[in-house]
């Protein structure tokens, strides 16, 4: 294979048709080098589907993903778009509607197990519907679910059955949103597992997608996960990913702040209350990320002296691999109920309607925005 395979002949997967490579396990077409000369030759993802009825997550960059997405509009398809409720704006595929055309879209809102138990689910559904409208996304249905807790998946499967007809099912989403868990559930529920899934049953394609056969002759099309560089989950190393991304329900922490006070979220980010009346702010951040409060006038020197130590993660060795911080000044209007949202890190709810001038410091490229309060 030329390039990644060091001059060997280019080989295609007999399962999905993708060009094979052995350089990167989390990219499409990965095949261990020791298996290179086996016949028939299939990529690791097809191997796992064939032998274990299990799909593995793979990722492609944004331009490549949009090229793949552009194929769906001309197909007879049902689109399942999976988003992460913890990082809703960061994982929503912007402009999805123009790619899928008139095909129906079901929005699967995953990781709802992370929300506090007192969450008002009707209000949450209304919030999601408004956000979809804001982003121009028309949905046939919205299903709240948790892949980790296996909650809402039966409802999602019912919704798919109600809307699928004779359509193929395309599953799309960003990385780390739980796409593979849904694919695996669809394989178990819809594929004919009494027969051995052989590679000959997978139509060849050069679209870097895996076509998984269904009982009725249609297919689940597993698209690679899109990498959005503005999400913290794409920026931090594996050592820190488990700290930044919560695994247990969020425990909101309320801070009574005066203007001129700062909150540090480990060494990952910083929130400044610059100007406004004494008021409360609620942080919805991973419980494993320690929060430090200090005076705004001391914040720069505190970070300079203690980043990677008191303010961690990341530690000092990993800190140099992170982009430099960028300051985002955000004015919260009077009378608004808003969150200051940081993609992949969480959000800070502004509880007062008095208005406030705030600033967020995060690594360059991380998406920061003001949005209507989620909770």
Task: Describe the fold and architecture.
With 375 residues, this protein is α/β, with parallel strands linked by helices. The protein has 2 domains: 52-226, P-loop containing nucleotide triphosphate hydrolases (Rossmann fold, 3-Layer(aba) Sandwich); 234-372, no CATH class. The chain is built from 11 helices and 18 strands. The relative contact order is 0.12. Mean pLDDT is 84; it is low at 1-7 and 193-207.
Short description:
With 375 residues, the protein is α/β, with parallel strands linked by helices.
Major sheet strand order = 4-3-2-5-7-6
What is the CATH superfamily classification of the largest domain? P-loop containing nucleotide triphosphate hydrolases
Please tally the β strands and state the result: 18
Largest sheet: 6 strands, mixed
Q: Using only CA atoms, what is the Rg? A: 22 Å
Helix content: 10-25%
Strand share of the residues?
Answer: 25-35%
What shape does the CA trace take? globular
Order of helices and strands: HEHEHHEHEHEHEEEHHEEEEEHHEEEEE
Q: If classified by CATH, what would the architecture of the largest domain be?
A: 3-Layer(aba) Sandwich
Task: Provide a count of the helices.
Answer: 11
Number of domains: 2
CATH class of the largest domain: Alpha Beta
The secondary structure category is alpha/beta
- Give the mean pLDDT: 84
Span between termini: 52 Å
**Unreliable parts:** 1-7, 193-207
**CATH topology heading of the largest domain:** Rossmann fold
């Amino acid at each position: 294979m030329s390039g990644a395979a060091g001059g060997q002949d280019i080989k295609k997967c007999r399962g999905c048709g993708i060009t094979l490579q052995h350089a990167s396990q989390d990219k499409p077409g990965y095949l261990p080098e020791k298996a290179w000369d086996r016949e028939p030759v299939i990529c690791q993802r097809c191997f796992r589907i064939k032998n274990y009825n299990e799909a593995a997550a793979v990722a492609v960059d944004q331009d490549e993903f949009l090229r793949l997405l552009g194929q769906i509009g001309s197909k007879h398809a049902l689109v399942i778009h999976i988003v992460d409720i913890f990082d809703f704006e960061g994982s929503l595929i912007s402009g999805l509607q123009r790619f899928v055309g008139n095909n129906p879209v079901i929005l699967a809102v995953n990781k709802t197990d992370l929300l506090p138990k007192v969450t008002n689910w009707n209000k949450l559904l209304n919030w999601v519907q408004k956000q979809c409208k804001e982003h121009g996304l028309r949905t046939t249905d919205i299903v709240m679910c948790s892949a980790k807790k296996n909650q809402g998946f039966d409802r999602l499967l019912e919704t798919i059955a109600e809307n699928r007809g004779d359509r193929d099912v395309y599953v799309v989403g960003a990385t780390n949103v739980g796409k593979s868990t849904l694919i695996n559930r669809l394989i178990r529920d819809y594929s004919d597992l009494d027969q051995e899934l052989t590679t000959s049953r997978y139509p060849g394609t050069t679209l870097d997608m895996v076509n998984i056969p269904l009982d009725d002759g249609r297919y689940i099309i597993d698209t690679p996960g899109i990498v959005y560089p503005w999400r913290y989950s794409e920026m931090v190393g594996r050592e820190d990913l488990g700290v930044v991304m919560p695994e247990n329900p969020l425990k909101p922490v309320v801070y009574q702040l005066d203007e001129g006070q700062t909150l540090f979220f480990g060494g990952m980010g910083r929130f400044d209350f610059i100007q406004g009346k004494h008021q409360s702010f609620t942080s919805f951040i991973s419980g494993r990320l320690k929060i430090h409060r200090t005076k705004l006038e001391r914040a720069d020197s505190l970070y300079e002296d203690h980043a990677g130590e008191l303010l961690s993660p990341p530690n000092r060795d990993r800190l140099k691999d992170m982009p430099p911080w960028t300051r985002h000044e955000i004015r919260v209007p009077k009378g608004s109920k808003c969150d200051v949202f940081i993609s992949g890190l969480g959000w800070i709810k502004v509880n007062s309607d008095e208005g406030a001038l705030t600033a967020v410091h995060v690594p360059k490229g991380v998406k920061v925005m003001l949005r209507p309060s989620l909770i």
